[in-house]
C-alpha cells in the first residue's frame, strides 16, 4: 500500500546514497526505503510512533533507524543536499 508521503523512485535516487549499507550493515530485514517512507509518513501526518500503520515495519524498528541516522547526522546532510539541489534548480529557471 502506498501513501502520499512515500518517496517516488526518482526522489529516492536523490537521497539513497546517504543510507548506504556501510552505515547500517547487511542484516536488514526491511529495506531502507520503507524505513525512510515510514519516517516521512510520521513527519507528514504527525501520528505517534506506536500508531504507525501495520504495513510499515514495527514502530520500534523505525524509531531505532531514525535515532541512529540522527546520531550520524544523516538527516541534516540529506536535507542540506536537497536544499542545495532545489536552489540550483530554481536558479536555472
What does this structure look like?
There is one protein chain. The chain is an all-alpha fold and 93 residues long. The chain is 60% helix and 0% strand. The protein contains five helices and no strands.
Overview features:
93 residues; 5 helices; 0% strand
Q: How does the SSE layout of this entry go?
A:
Blueprint: H1 9-15, H2 21-24, H3 32-45, H4 59-71, H5 74-91
Helix pairs in contact: 3-4
* Cα-atom radius of gyration: 14 Å
Give a count of the beta strands, DSSP E runs of length 2 or more: 0
Mean pLDDT over the full residue set: 88
Q: What does the largest sheet look like?
A: none
Give the overall silhouette. globular
Question: End-to-end distance, in Å?
Answer: 35 Å
Count up the helices: 5
User: Hey, roughly how much beta strand do the residues contain?
Assistant: under 5%
Q: Estimate percent helicity.
A: 55-70%
Stretches with pLDDT under 50, minimum 5 residues:
none
Structural class: mainly alpha
Listing every helix as H and every strand as E from the N terminus to the C terminus, the arrangement reads HHHHH
